[in-house]
Amino acid sequence: MSITSSTVDIPKEPAIRRAWVVYQLRIRGLSFGSLARDSGVSRQAISNALLMPSSHLEEIIAEAIGLTAQELFPERFDTTGRRLHRTRSPERNTRANPDNVKTGEAA
């Protein structure tokens, strides 16, 4: 049995889309938790990507259900496929880089 998704079936309303995505993951034996573990992020981060733009997490979710991020979140892209909003980099690090931290020593 093959499971396929059609872009016609994707709900536009965020709350309904979230339930649809949960269902699509569940029928594939997946969950937000399993995507989070496999991606090294929190379950909440995966869940938040359905409400707030996050390019790398959108791609993870979309790929898990056999779609592209543009198909799953068309309102986040223009007609040429470019993102409408900037998103955070997946490599973003909020901690100071020890190699770049000033020690306070005089030069």
TrEMBL record:
<keyword id="KW-0805">Transcription regulation</keyword>
<dbReference type="GO" id="GO:0003677">
    <property type="term" value="F:DNA binding"/>
</dbReference>
<protein>
    <submittedName>
        <fullName>Ner-like DNA-binding protein</fullName>
    </submittedName>
</protein>
<feature type="region of interest" description="Disordered">
    <location>
        <begin position="78"/>
        <end position="107"/>
    </location>
</feature>
<dbReference type="Pfam" id="PF13693">
    <property type="entry name" value="HTH_35"/>
</dbReference>
<feature type="domain" description="Ner winged helix-turn-helix DNA-binding">
    <location>
        <begin position="23"/>
        <end position="86"/>
    </location>
</feature>
<comment type="similarity">
    <text>Belongs to the ner transcriptional regulatory family.</text>
</comment>
<dbReference type="InterPro" id="IPR010982">
    <property type="entry name" value="Lambda_DNA-bd_dom_sf"/>
</dbReference>
<dbReference type="InterPro" id="IPR038722">
    <property type="entry name" value="Ner_HTH_dom"/>
</dbReference>
<dbReference type="InterPro" id="IPR001387">
    <property type="entry name" value="Cro/C1-type_HTH"/>
</dbReference>
<keyword id="KW-0238">DNA-binding</keyword>
<keyword id="KW-0804">Transcription</keyword>
